[in-house]
Amino acid sequence: MTDPDNLNDGGLPPTMDISLWRTLDASANRASEGLRVIEDYVRYGQNDVFLTTELKTLRHQLDSTLQKFERAPAIQSRDTFGDVGTSVQGKLEQTRSGWADLLTANFKRLQQALRSLEEHAKLVDGEVAASFERGRYLSYSLEKMVMTTVAASQLFPQVSIYVLIDGGDDGHSFDTFVATLVDAEVDVIQLRDKKLDDRTLLARAQSLRKRTAGTSTKMILNDRADLAKVSGADGVHVGQEELTVSQVRSVLGAGKLVGVSTHSIDQARQAVRDGADYIGIGPTFPSGTKNFEAFPGVELLREVAGEITLPGFAIGGIDPSNIAEVAAVGIRRVAVAGSVTTAVDPGAVVQAMRTCLSTGSENS
Ligand SMILES: Cc1ncc(COP(=O)(O)OP(=O)(O)O)c(N)n1
Ligand SMILES: Cc1nc(C(=O)O)sc1CCOP(=O)(O)O
Ligand SMILES: [Mg+2]
């Protein structure tokens, strides 16, 4: 494939003429440039080590496929000033309405260029065309990860308090407790009750929906996509053995939140790949709410904080006495149950934890 003249032998490509070289050259440049813009944002704008690494994988894959084409004839065929397309430029190409618009435009540029490379490579070598196709598929997954991370980072405040509650003794006391948490401006309330029958659980979810509607407090249901859908919850939280992110989304529809529990750095990375909106990271400390045999502890929090910018909530035994250890490793979002639900003054505990997270160490 490196000799354009030979390509015309044996009836392989119909033409490896100058127009084909020009197309390959232009599309290769477009793909690399689009990818670089996205990588720069993720690297310098987001400081996201994991996404930067994932994007690098595509860049290397693209580079090694492009190496199958000789560079010299591609560059020789270049005729930037004779390219009719350079003078046909829409006004929209000169402005971007924000980061999301900028990223979307560059993912589109990348994908269109990869498609063009793929189609034109079919005239030359099917295997090379297939390699561009694989790159295009990879770019779709990367777009999902990057766009979800960027949107989710804006959705949850940098300092967030997430409270898990059960259904309580009765509907009235449940509603009163929820009102206390909403007044304390907790950022998320998760209804997690493994004992209630479905109808009672749904009634609690509906009551939670009523109290949180129109407030800054988001409502999440633990495990149950079906009840989340019926009650109009903002989202669902799932564990490693429950429905997958895409399965939950297929039940809830677009625009809802899906959180995933993670207990290792690999699970956290996979949750980003799967397009989760946030992750729970734990267990951090021994918990009175749930029994665990192993504790990844603050070391896992540190690892996640060091490479992932998708919102991550530290969970497991967190209370005002140990929350500084969480903040110290760079996590400023926490999910708590017992320390708030058993407190004499839940609002004061929420406030104490918020203060500690706000004044904690840098880079959450
Ligand atoms: C915010 C948050 N993080 C982790 C969990 C735990 O979910 P899971 O592992 O599915 O365990 P159960 O809660 O279902 O017992 C969570 N609920 N919320
Ligand atoms: C339900 C749950 N999941 C965890 C995990 O690590 O996945 S820790 C946990 C219990 C959270 O309650 P508390 O704040 O009372 O410890
Ligand atoms: Mg679960």
UniProtKB/TrEMBL annotation:
User: What is the gene called?
Assistant: thiE
> What is one Gene Ontology biological process annotated in the Swiss-Prot or TrEMBL record?
thiamine diphosphate biosynthetic process
EC number annotated for this UniProt entry: 2.5.1.3
Q: What does this protein do?
A: Condenses 4-methyl-5-(beta-hydroxyethyl)thiazole monophosphate (THZ-P) and 2-methyl-4-amino-5-hydroxymethyl pyrimidine pyrophosphate (HMP-PP) to form thiamine monophosphate (TMP).
CDD domains for the chain: TMP_TenI
Q: What is the lineage of its organism?
A: Bacteria, Pseudomonadati, Planctomycetota, Planctomycetia, Pirellulales
Show the InterPro entries listed in the entry: Aldolase_TIM, ThiamineP_synth_sf, ThiamineP_synth_TenI, ThiD2, TMP_synthase, TMP_synthase_cyanobac_bac
Superkingdom: Bacteria
Residues annotated to bind 4-amino-2-methyl-5-(diphosphooxymethyl)pyrimidine: Q190, L191, R192, D193, K194, N222, S261, K290
State the family named in the UniProt similarity comment for this chain.
Belongs to the thiamine-phosphate synthase family.
What does the note accompanying the cofactor annotation read? Binds 1 Mg(2+) ion per subunit.
Q: What is this protein called?
A: Thiamine-phosphate synthase
